[in-house]
Write a structure and sequence with these properties.
The structure holds two protein chains of two kinds.
Chain A: E1 5-12, E2 15-21, H1 32-42, E3 56-60, E4 66-69, E5 75-84, H2 93-101, H3 109-121, E6 126-129, E7 137-142, E8 148-150, E9 156-158, E10 164-167, E11 172-175, E12 179-180, E13 193-200, H4 202-211, H5 217-222, H6 230-246, E14 249-252, E15 255-257, E16 267-270, H7 271-278, H8 284-293, E17 297-301, E18 305-309, H9 320-331, H10 351-365, E19 369-370, E20 376-377, H11 379-383, E21 391-392, E22 403-404, H12 409-420, E23 427-441, E24 447-458, E25 460-462, E26 471-472, H13 475-487, E27 495-498, E28 510-514, E29 517-524, H14 527-532, E30 539-545, H15 546-549, E31 568-577, H16 582-591, E32 597-607, E33 615-624, H17 633-647, E34 653-654
Parallel strand pairs in A: 3-14, 4-7, 19-23
Antiparallel strand pairs in A: 1-2, 5-13, 5-14, 5-15, 6-13, 7-10, 8-9, 10-11, 11-12, 16-18, 17-18, 20-22, 21-22, 23-24, 24-30, 25-26, 27-28, 28-29, 29-30, 31-33, 31-34, 32-33
Helix pairs in contact in A: 2-3, 3-6, 7-9, 8-9
Chain B: H1 3-7, H2 19-46, H3 50-62, H4 68-78, H5 85-107, H6 116-121, H7 142-156, E1 160-161, E2 167-169, H8 170-173, E3 193-195, E4 198-200, H9 205-215, E5 219-228, E6 240-250, H10 255-270, E7 276-283, E8 286-295, E9 312-321, H11 323-328, E10 337-344, H12 345-353, H13 366-369
Parallel strand pairs in B: 1-5
Antiparallel strand pairs in B: 2-4, 3-4, 5-6, 6-10, 7-8, 8-9, 9-10
Classes of the chains: A alpha+beta, B alpha+beta.
Bound molecules: zinc ion.
Zinc ion binds next to loops of chain B.
């Protein structure tokens, strides 16, 4: 209920180990103390802090160590204590068990004490072997050019001038807030311990850790923002613990370098703003009680406001709305009211969506199944299908997913192969997605993205059944599907042109264009590519430019009176020279502009045997109709003659004439 | 003269050089067919031996060589001089089509082709229990189906759909959403980069920024689309996935609107008996932030395998839009407030259809696709 999700709860002896999901804004809950405070506030119980006292010897810490901060930007506070004459040995049973329960491997009593306090108070500490701090000095500064440090993990690191380090009189001995140095590590030979409890600037720790590809318990906390007040308490607590576990003596006093006090600024919390954001009033006493329990100081201000100062451990709270979230959290989200709120009425239609729905419903009716394929591809494979440069990724997962595709064809081929390999041979797929290229840029300078619709079809157009024989799918099935799709739009009369793309079987490719823009390219996959992709049957592919198609209006609907007089059909059995293609016939017939000609189509075409050499036969069926009378046979004959006259320049004759 | 007699003569012999007469002659033949089929049908209703009669009828008209149509072809069409054949040819084609459709198809539905079924049935009549001639419809991908369903719920509430580029600026994807490079929250997103200023969007939230800048307030939108994460694939993770986010910005928008509208949405999607639960969470771009869970649609909240016995299913992150995010979108946070949510469409599809592995969506296996 607090926003601390319990991922798991496991018994560990008499204790229960809760695994909490702590969000990045709540570093104060990365320790038992912070979680206890939350629970106490939520359940209105008393919050009890751990009790400890440090017994100090007569010798002053200042005799043992000198501490300075050269880089105040990176380190706002540094507390040091010295414990002398420690005996480094394994921790007692209770300590080892507690650390293991929270997933920390026990090392020795000194290191374990720092880890224990890390888990208890949430504050990271570091213990140095004082004997290895040259000059008995500590300085917090940026690394020098060419400076090196071997960290605790045994890695020799080349330091950057931006890295914040802890240095002794001569050299860096730790990466501040990230990891200690190997040289000053606590070992069984260590006699005197210098204990560090500091406050490092989150962004600087984060950058240092990133630069060295390190992520430690310490850096995880410092980059989220630690409690600057806790630096002092944590060093006392740890020193007391080390003394207890190792028999050492804590020197008198703390070297507490904290030159510029950090003061949290006051936030004005308006009761009206609580209502504006939460949609309900929260009573003043509740606000005061909740925020106080969470460690905020709160004073009444003028006119239903409060002056609130967040505690030092809540760096995430900076604004009024952050306080409102705290109030809502403790009030309980489930206790807040509900209201369904619709947008103001609008008659605006989403034409783009209507068009997309038209496309997918048409394709579904035509038997195509929608697929979704990965956008990330192997750039080498991509290059075999297009010259457009794909968009390469800087940090890909794998080489075969290292670029954003600039063609959708390979994805379709892989989808077809997946199924053919599994014995599924009759396939019709469509994929509506994007292609991406650096060959063009948007007005914002981003790589261009284009929406494309890709069709892939193979196998039988009609399966064998008890009623019918099977028929394989061919080029004209795909072409017909495209024509059906385009007919749903105001595409005018899309023009066809033969054109092979590089992946087309020679002589099998074509395209449709309207208003000078290419709407679709389609054809049969080249047999060599088919062999490489292990596609053992003819594959038909179409690429449709969606930017272009979606820019067209849906077919306009308007009523035209249904003719009252019957239509007359006339079949023209044509003998056509082989050099003449259907489109020429189509154009010639259309050019006659016969008012009575309602339509015409080729119903039969054959070549061979009985025909004169170099010719084929085409049966053209015309539908003739007049809106105001029944056409006579003479009129129909006259129309036929006009059409024949238009076809004769192409060398076309009536068969048998 | 009967039709049979006329069919045995040529047009010349029938004295029909004039084309109007030809039209009438063909009309007469069609009328004869209609009449015979009609009478056959009436007898068929009372006579058990209709299959036999149907065969007789078909042979009479359509038999090769000696059927009436074959005779008409021979005597009327082929015997006509070539120059006047065009008209007769057209009429004959129509007649043949008509005869075939009336006699071959309507009278003997099972005998259209000499398929195995037809041969067995010639004597008994068609086996009407045979399956019909189905046409296989295609299918819409389950992710698209769920996306549209989610969109439709919000369109019903007057929200509009907004889309944006998948290759985005680091600024729109992170900085404008209050996720600076310097803050560890940026590590919550495993990001695929193009270069230091460009990336594959990790959520559709940059579309919210774009829409705020473009349209200003009030604004009610949903933003569906592909997103990417640098994640190794497993049962529930995929480097590419689909997200839909929602955003409402207006005067007088409160946390109550967020809760009420998302509760309404969950009831529409999972059923009216669905209950919702809101818990605090953290997202840099919302404040207060929350997670919405719904009572498990599989067990109704009793506890089952899908909800890991908890009775609840985490559905989405949500919250009140952070004032800095409104500001980055060019909207005054003192005057306007807003709520937002974001959810993974694959997860909703997996819940809706009980799909166990996210990889199923992207394999294009037709045995999977057919189920939707
Ligand atoms: Zn359940």
């Amino acid at each position: 209920m607090l926003g601390l999700g319990v991922a798991s709860s496991i018994a560990a002896g008499a204790d229960q180990v809760l695994d909490l999901e702590v969000t990045t804004n709540r570093p104060d809950c990365l320790g038992h103390l912070g979680v206890a405070r939350e629970v106490a506030a939520a359940f209105e119980r008393e919050f009890v802090r751990p009790v400890y006292s440090v017994r100090e010897t007569g010798k002053s810490v200042h005799e043992a160590i000198k501490i300075g901060i050269s880089d105040l930007e990176g380190c706002a506070r540094y507390c040091g204590r010295v414990i002398e004459n420690v005996e480094v040995r394994p921790s007692p049973e209770w300590m080892a068990r507690r650390l293991e329960a929270v997933g920390v491997r026990p090392i020795n009593n000194v290191a374990d004490a720092t880890n224990y306090v890390l888990m208890e108070l949430g504050h990271p500490l570091h213990a140095f072997d004082l004997a290895h701090l040259r000059g008995a000095r500590i300085d917090v500064r940026r690394a020098r050019a060419g400076e090196k440090l071997q960290t605790l993990d045994g890695v020799d690191r080349e330091l950057s001038k931006a890295d914040l380090v802890i240095a002794d009189a001569e050299r860096a001995v730790a990466l501040a807030g990230v990891m200690g140095g190997a040289d000053s590590e606590i070992t069984s030979a260590t006699r005197h311990v210098m204990l560090e409890s500091a406050w490092f600037e989150p962004v600087i720790v984060r950058r240092t850790a990133k630069r060295h590809a390190l992520h430690t318990e310490a850096s995880h906390r410092f980059e989220r923002g630690m409690d600057i007040m806790m630096a002092r308490g944590a060093v006392d607590r740890t020193a007391a613990l080390i003394a207890e576990l190792s028999g050492g003596q804590v020197l008198a006093g703390v070297v507490d370098v904290y030159p510029l006090r950090r003061i949290r600024s006051t936030i004005v919390l308006r009761s009206s703003e609580i209502r504006r954001i939460l949609g309900t009033d929260v009573e003043g006493p509740e606000v005061i009680r909740d925020l106080t329990a969470l460690g905020f100081s709160i004073e009444p201000g003028p006119e239903a406001t409060w002056h609130v100062v967040p505690p030092s451990f809540r760096l995430d709270v900076e604004r009024e709305v952050d306080l409102i979230e705290e109030v809502a959290r403790l009030h309980g989200y489930d206790a807040l009211p509900m209201r369904v709120r619709a947008a103001p009425p609008s008659a605006e239609r989403d034409l783009g969506r209507e068009r997309e729905l038209e496309i997918s419903s048409t394709l579904r009716a035509l038997g195509y199944r929608e697929i979704i394929v990965p956008s990330m591809v192997d750039p080498g494979e991509n290059a075999r299908f297009t010259d457009a440069e794909p968009v390469r990724l800087m940090n890909p997962l794998t080489e075969d997913a290292s670029a954003m595709r600039s063609t959708a064809v390979p994805g379709m081929l892989r989808a077809l192969r997946w199924n053919l390999d599994r014995g599924q041979t009759d396939l019709r797929f469509f994929e509506s997605g994007k292609i991406y290229t650096t060959s063009a840029r948007t007005s914002e300078g981003l790589p261009a993205e284009y929406r494309v619709l890709t069709l892939g079809a193979t196998g039988l157009q009609r399966p064998a059944s008890v009623h019918d024989t099977a028929r394989p799918l061919d080029f004209f099935d795909l072409k017909g599907d495209l024509e059906t799709l385009l007919a749903g739009f105001e595409s005018g009369r899309p023009e066809f042109a033969a054109e092979d793309l590089r992946y087309h079987e020679p002589g099998s490719g074509g395209r449709y264009f309207a208003n000078g823009e290419v709407l679709a390219r389609f054809g049969q996959l080249h047999h060599e590519l088919a062999r490489e992709y292990k596609l053992r049957q003819p594959i038909y592919l179409a690429e449709i430019g969606l930017e272009c198609l979606l820019g067209l209006n849906l077919r306009a609907r308007h009523f035209r009176a249904i003719p009252r007089y019957p239509a007359v059909e006339r079949d023209l059995s044509l003998l056509v020279p082989e050099s003449v293609v259907y489109r020429q016939i189509e154009e010639a017939v259309s050019a006659v502009k016969l008012a009575e000609l309602q339509g015409f189509r080729a119903v039969d075409r054959f070549a061979g045997r009985s025909l004169p050499a170099g010719h084929y036969s085409l049966l053209l069926r015309m539908v003739l109709q007049s809106p105001d009378r029944t056409l006579t046979g003479e009129e129909a004959d006259a129309a036929s003659r006009q059409i024949m006259a238009a076809l004769e320049p192409l060398g076309i004759q009536l068969r048998g004439a | 003269m009967t039709i049979d007699e006329k069919a045995a003569k040529t047009l010349d012999e029938l004295g029909l050089a004039d084309s109007n007469g030809v039209g009438e002659l063909f009309a007469e033949v069609r009328a004869a067919i209609e009449c015979e089929v009609d009478s056959f049908r009436r007898r068929e209703a009372s006579d058990s031996d209709s299959a036999c009669e149907a065969k007789t009828l078909r042979d009479r008209w359509l038999a090769r060589g000696h059927g009436l149509i074959a005779q008409i072809d021979q005597n009327w069409l082929k015997a006509t001089p070539k120059e006047s054949r065009g008209m007769v040819g057209a009429e004959f084609n129509r007649l043949r089509q008509y005869a075939t459709s009336q006699i071959d198809v309507d009278s003997l539905p099972g005998a259209r082709k000499t398929t195995s079924a037809a041969r067995g049935e010639a004597a008994r009549g068609p086996d009407l229990t045979l399956p019909g001639n189905q046409r296989e419809l295609g299918s819409i991908h389950p992710v698209t189906r769920v996306q549209r369903e989610l969109e439709d719920i919000f369109i019903g509430l007057g929200f509009r759909i907004e889309t944006g580029p998948e290759i985005e600026s680091v600024y729109n994807n992170f900085d404008a959403l209050n996720i600076p490079e310097s803050h560890p929250s940026r590590d919550d997103w495993d990001t695929l980069y193009i270069d230091s200023t460009t990336l594959l969007r990790t959520h559709t939230s940059p579309v919210q920024i774009r829409a705020m800048r473009k349209h200003g307030a009030p604004l009610y939108i949903v933003t569906p689309g592909k997103c990417y994460r640098n994640e190794n694939p497993d049962a529930t993770h995929s480097a590419m996935f689909h997200q839909i986010e929602g955003l409402a910005v207006d005067t007088d928008i409160t946390f109550a609107d967020l809760k009420g509208t998302l509760d309404f949405f969950a009831k529409k999607f999972f059923g009216e008996r669905t209950r919702t639960r809101f818990q605090p969470s953290f997202f840099p771009f919302t404040e207060p932030s929350g997670e919405m869970a719904a009572s498990c649609p599989f067990c109704g909240g009793q506890g089952c395998r899908t909800c890991k016995e908890s009775g609840w299913i985490e559905l989405m992150g949500c919250g009140m839009v952070h004032p800095d995010v409104l500001r980055h979108g060019g909207i005054d946070p003192e005057r306007y407030s807003g709520w937002a949510f974001g959810l993974g469409i694959e997860r909703f599809a997996m819940l809706k259809y009980d799909i166990g592995e996210i990889q199923n969506f992207f394999q294009s296996d037709v045995r999977f696709l057919k189920q939707f």
